Amino acid sequence: MSLTVDDDLWQAVGDPTRRRMLDLLLAEGGGTATGLSSRLPVTRQAVAKHLEVLHRVGMVNVRPAGRERIYEVSEAQLSRAVEQLSSVGAAWDARLQRIKGIAEAIQRSAERQVPN
After folding, report:
1. Residue 4 pLDDT greater than 80, yes or no
2. CATH ID of 7-113, from 3.30.457.10, 3.40.50.300, 1.10.10.10, 3.90.220.20
């Protein structure tokens, strides 16, 4: 199974603060920039900017609630990210198996050339 990797998504999720925000949103079923900023070592404005990046790549959905905006992790995009990660992991596993096979072949060849 080969999927196209969404570089924008992985660049957004690659930031440790954004990953922590996603963890909090998943654990709490959603949240606001104000609520998240009280749990993170960054300002509310920084949280809002991080949430905008996550929203732009589809990792969070947003809905208005009075003066606040409620952010929730997009289950569809999270599933897509998991599929991409699995695909990349499988591709690297296959590459590493090929490298292991080459290394073992080189080792066997070297052992046959050593005089007794």
Report:
1. no
2. 1.10.10.10
